[in-house]
Amino acid sequence: MQLQVGQIVPCTEAEGPGKRFAIWVQGCPLRCAGCCNPEYLPFAGGTAWAVADLLALIQATQQREGIEGVTLLGGEPTVHAATGPLASGVQRLGLSVMVFSGYTLAQLQERAQTEPALAELLAQTDILVDGPYLRDQPDTRRRWIGSTNQTIHFLTPRYRADDPCWQQPNTLEIRLDRDGVTINGFPAAQAAGLWKGLTRKRGRSP
């Protein structure tokens, strides 16, 4: 089974609790106004990864970097059948799973009744951040959350809502590689010009 991947950041602290392996899937049927990753909306594009190869890379990163989990973003992770088996494999490695979805939990649970891969993904997810991004309702209080309408669901006891990490300032990570400059996370207001000027970007909407 393969997953169409837009981008990968093997070790980041800007996409959920602790050090995380972040995967942006390629393809989303939603069109949230202000989406900062429009390049991940088309289902065509990205790179096809075998789930087994992704898990091998995640395990190697776990051993090298001490990551504690995997975060799935997009794109829209819940419309890709391979994310279910991927999440199961991540859990077998002893790592946590965090998912960002533009659908609400209620919508996902209804879909899961007829979509086995989605049911598997939900069963293996520790943290779900749900709901469409609304650019006119920016969230400035909760870390890692784009807009105030979105809800953090703790689907397992692995993480807690009262953990102070959710109240810490957002972070912005900037990397220079052979393809140019990339960023992920949430920039401060004064970095808006930098965000727009960079050649490529990863993350959620600023």
Overall average pLDDT: 87
CA radius of gyration is 16 Å
> What is the terminal separation in angstroms?
33 Å
CATH topology: TIM Barrel
Shape: globular
* Helix count, DSSP H or I runs of 4 or more residues: 5
Count of discrete domains: 1
Main β-sheet, in a few words?
A: 7 strands, mixed
How would you sum up this structure, described in words?
The chain is α/β, with parallel strands linked by helices and 206 residues long. It has one domain (2-168): Alpha-Beta Barrel (TIM Barrel), CATH 3.20.20. The chain contains five helices and nine strands. The chain has helices spanning 51-65, 83-92, 105-112, 116-123, 192-197; strands at residues 2-12, 20-25, 47-50, 69-73, 96-100, 127-130, 151-154, 172-177, 180-185. It has a seven-stranded mixed beta sheet with strand order 3-1-2-4-5-6-7, with helices on one face. Helix 1 runs parallel beside helix 2 (83-92), helix 2 (83-92) packs parallel to helix 4 (116-123) and helix 3 (105-112) packs across helix 4. The longest helix is centred in the first third of the chain and has 15 residues, at 51-65. The protein is globular.
Give the SSE map:
Blueprint lengths: L1 E11 L7 E6 L21 E4 H15 L3 E5 L9 H10 L3 E5 L4 H8 L3 H8 L3 E4 L20 E4 L17 E6 L2 E6 L6 H6 L9
What's the gist of this structure?
The chain has 206 residues and is an alpha/beta fold. It has helices at residues 51-65, 83-92, 105-112, 116-123, 192-197; strands at 2-12, 20-25, 47-50, 69-73, 96-100, 127-130, 151-154, 172-177, 180-185. It has one domain (2-168): Aldolase class I (TIM Barrel).
